[in-house]
Every structure is written in C-alpha cells, then in structure tokens.
Amino acid sequence: xxxxxxxxxxxxxxxxxxxxxxxxxxxxxxxxxxxxxxxxxxxxxxxxxxxxxxxxxxxxxxxxxxxxxxx
Length: 71
What we know:
Blueprint: H1 3-10, E1 13-14, H2 16-23, H3 27-36, E2 43-46, E3 49-53, H4 54-67
Antiparallel strand pairs: 1-3, 2-3
C-alpha cells in the first residue's frame, strides 16, 4: 500500500467547508461547540489553515444520530 493509502486508511484532515457539510453545522456553531467541548477540536495544519480529524467528526455525527432516540 502506498504512503497516501496508509494515511487515508488511518485518518484524513478536513477543512472547514468539508466539516460544515459532514456535520450539518455552520462555522459559528462549529466553533461555539468546540469552545463548549461538545465538538472535536481542530488542529493547526500550518500556514494558518485549520483542519479536523475526519474520524473524529464522523464519530461526532454518529453520536448525534445515536442520541436522537434518547431525548
């Protein structure tokens, strides 16, 4: 398996636009939830770019879906 294949299999870093699409949230809500500790923290990827772990964002979405029947 190539190096890129191993990185993709392990995890991928998503930009804000992708995170907004996957999570179904806007920028302000994502940052508000991050500050509250209820959304995955972002990391600085360098050059001023902010990225999120795809695996962590997907886990957050799965958690939201799992909780919908328990409210």
